[in-house]
């Protein structure tokens, strides 16, 4: 285990150096969610009825944070693809390092990059009127949910990063993930949707995650949504991790 942690730390440092040399990646990651945030608050927000007394930016921000993560993980898949095509993985395999540390380094880099992007989006939200009643405990709970969500989706991103045939293919998988919050309670209450769409919106994972974050920001009781959200995220994480490890063994063997 000591070798694993040391190898992972060294490889994570390598990946983070690549990030710091191309800060435009993080800026690009945050740019689209910020554009959605501004568009819906200032263009569509006045016409959307949320059925609550909170401002629309407070209602909207949790969903925008999930879109930020979904956007950011596409770069994880792209960086993996570049390492594979450039022969970096083969060079690592010739060195006395633990195999799993190579993937974990990319995953941890994704976590760091997405935390920065999320912080930028939250800052923009505060500047345009986002306010929260959450205390330290609420903020820590939101941070935990977002980190678990990022970890789960990052392992999903590892799979196309290892299996895609082209650079475009590595990022194409993220488009459905970015679109999924639009069919949830992220932008409008599910009660306003027609029957089949409403059923899908209420039972897909994004709704329970968004509702949990929204309740924590409001300082209100989360209820059963939190356990449903945790169940979805842990389930996705376990399945994605298993398939990612299988794809890694097949690709490197």
TrEMBL record:
It comes from the Bacteria. The keyword Transmembrane applies. Keywords: Antibiotic resistance, Cell membrane, Membrane, Transmembrane, Transmembrane helix, Transport. PROSITE patterns: ABC_TM2. InterPro entries: ABC2_TM, ABC2_TM_bact-type, ABC_2_transport, Nod_factor_ABC_transporter. The chain crosses the membrane at residues 26-48, 60-82, 103-130, 136-160, 226-248. GO terms for biological process: response to antibiotic. Signal peptide: none annotated. It is found in: Cell membrane; Membrane. It is a multi-pass membrane protein. Residues 24-251 form the ABC transmembrane type-2 domain. GO terms for molecular function: ABC-type transporter activity. It holds the Pfam family ABC2_membrane. One of its GO terms (cellular component) is ATP-binding cassette (ABC) transporter complex. Belongs to the ABC-2 integral membrane protein family. This is Transport permease protein. The lineage of its organism: Bacteria, Bacillati, Actinomycetota, Actinomycetes, Micrococcales.
């Amino acid at each position: 285990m000591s070798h694993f942690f040391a190898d992972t730390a060294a490889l994570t440092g390598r990946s983070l150096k690549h990030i710091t040399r191309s800060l435009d990646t993080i800026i690009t990651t945050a740019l689209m969610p910020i554009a959605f945030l501004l568009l819906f608050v200032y263009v569509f927000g006045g016409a959307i009825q949320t059925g609550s007394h909170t401002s629309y930016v407070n209602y909207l921000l949790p969903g925008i944070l999930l879109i930020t993560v979904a956007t950011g993980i596409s770069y994880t898949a792209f960086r993996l693809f570049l390492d594979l095509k450039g022969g970096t993985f083969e060079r690592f395999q010739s060195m006395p390092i633990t195999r799993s540390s190579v993937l974990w380094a990319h995953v941890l880099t994704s976590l760091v990059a997405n935390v920065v992007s999320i912080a930028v989006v939250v800052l923009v939200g505060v500047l345009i009127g986002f306010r929260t009643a959450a205390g330290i405990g609420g903020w820590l709970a939101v941070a935990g949910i977002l980190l678990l969500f990022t970890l789960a989706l990052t392992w999903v991103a590892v799979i196309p990063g290892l299996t895609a045939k082209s650079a475009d293919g590595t990022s194409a998988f993220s488009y459905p993930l970015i679109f999924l919050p639009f069919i949830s309670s992220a932008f409008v209450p599910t009660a306003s949707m027609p029957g089949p769409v409403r059923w899908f919106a209420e039972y897909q994972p994004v709704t329970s995650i968004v509702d949990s974050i929204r309740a924590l920001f409001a300082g209100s009781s989360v209820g059963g949504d939190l356990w449903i959200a945790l169940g979805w995220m842990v389930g996705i994480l376990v399945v994605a991790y298993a398939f990612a490890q299988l794809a890694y063994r097949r690709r490197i063997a």
